[in-house]
Design a protein that fits this description.
single chain; 119 residues; seven-stranded mixed beta sheet; 11 strands
């Protein structure tokens, strides 16, 4: 069974920083796209940033210049460095990955980690 576990969330004041981490474990042959999503209260889940296996990256306009996504293909980990945090960044952040287990290729989700930014 494949599991994704996020960590690093918490409470921080506006202008502060947090670093989120995600670890994928289980029967993994390879991982294609990895991404961070977030869902704020009363809003749809949105893509924050994504990265392919070649480490190319894509960011939502709202976080460009403030967030940095990175991955370690040897450790199956995904990080999100969040700087200059704003109250509007408050949300549950989810790790997502397209994983080949040898038997299937599908999308997996972590349980989410809460990020709260106070003004």
């Amino acid at each position: 069974q494949v599991h994704l576990v996020e960590s690093g969330g918490g409470l921080v004041q506006a202008g502060g920083s947090l670093r989120l981490s995600c670890v994928a474990s289980g029967s993994i042959v390879s991982i294609n796209v990895m991404a961070w999503y977030r869902q704020a209260p009363g809003k749809q889940r949105e893509l924050v940033a994504s990265t392919n296996a070649d480490r190319s990256t894509l960011y939502a306009d709202s976080v460009k210049g403030r967030f940095t996504i990175s991955r370690d293909n040897t450790k199956n980990t995904l990080d999100l460095q969040m700087n200059s945090l704003k109250p509007e960044d408050t949300a549950v952040y989810y790790c997502n990955a397209d994983i080949n287990t040898g038997w299937s290729l599908r999308s997996y989700w972590g349980q989410g980690t809460q990020v709260t930014v106070s003004s």
